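Blackboard transcription, Thursday session:
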Amino acid sequence: GESVGLHLPTLSVQEGDNSIINCAYSNSASDYFIWYKQESGKGPQFIIDIRSNMDKRQGQRVTVLLNKTVKHLSLQIAATQPGDSAVYFCAEKEGSQGNLIFGKGTKLSVKP
Amino acid sequence: NAGVTQTPKFRVLKTGQSMTLLCAQDMNHEYMYWYRQDPGMGLRLIHYSVGEGTTAKGEVPDGYNVSRLKKQNFLLGLESAAPSQTSVYFCASSRVGEQYFGPGTRLTVT
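(Written on the board underneath:)
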């Protein structure tokens, strides 16, 4: 079946630098995408979402970019902080009745 | 709002034992979900519900049953636990769109 994947399983960045986490999706019919953050021992926490009629959406220190042509999603974190250390998952969904399909996750480590 | 809560937080079962995991949400969400998460894996959907009294199978439903007798509660049952069901189980709820997750239940089957 269709699946959501990630380009890199781990990412290590220096505190204060910007982080970019990438995600490839294969279902061209997916029209809704979410990024989640999961800290150790906790449940996933919503970060930001984007619909397929947009190519960019900004939140507080985070930006999600969607490139439907190459079916690519990215999460940019500005001025990465130690508290950003976690596993980040992208997820895709097709239609209002579809279920979320999650990627395997990227572990972000922030070096002080 | 407590959001999504799960009980218990930890449990150890012997092979063949049964148990029920309880999920509760206070956001009046229609949709509820049960996922399992294994090391190095993403979340895999076990069962879900689109409303009170309804349930449906997800990606990995075998060995599990669910019930949604009340809108705010979603129960996940293991009738005869197997070591392959050792995992962390997450419940989530939503309207349409983003899902809100509980803190998880760590289950070990020996």
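Lecturer's comment: DSSP finds no helices and eleven strands in chain A.
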